[in-house]
């Protein structure tokens, strides 16, 4: 019999505005990970992270990736046309795509 296939699922969910209405408000997202990989001690984990922590992660990956291309993050738009909810949802999808790659 073969080995079971290793699967890892990652979801970026539940965006929340923190410090709403203040000059230092930001959005964070729930990152939920589920895996059967032996490389992980915990089979499920859940943390909240904000965009700048994804920027940090991408920099670390680039530093260690050699010639392997590191996926792009969704843009950090100061001039967004449309609703804040639309922007947050588009960013959520982009962050999930980044983690999946």
TrEMBL record:
Segments forming domain PX: 7-101
Entries under PROSITE patterns matching the protein: PX
Keywords from the UniProt entry: Cytoplasm, Endosome, Lipid-binding, Membrane, Protein transport, Transport
Membrane topology: Peripheral membrane protein
Any one cellular-component term (Gene Ontology): endosome
Localization (cell): Cytoplasm; Endomembrane system; Endosome
InterPro entries registered for this protein in UniProt: PX_dom, PX_dom_sf, SNX10/11
PANTHER family according to UniProt: PX DOMAIN-CONTAINING PROTEIN, SORTING NEXIN-11
Family affiliation: Belongs to the sorting nexin family.
Broad class of where this protein is predominantly found: cytoplasm
Coiled coil location: none
Name of the protein described by the UniProt record: SNX11 protein
Source taxonomy: Eukaryota, Metazoa, Chordata, Craniata, Vertebrata
GO biological process: intracellular protein transport; vesicle organization
GO molecular function terms noted in the UniProt entry: phosphatidylinositol phosphate binding
Pfam families associated with the record: PX
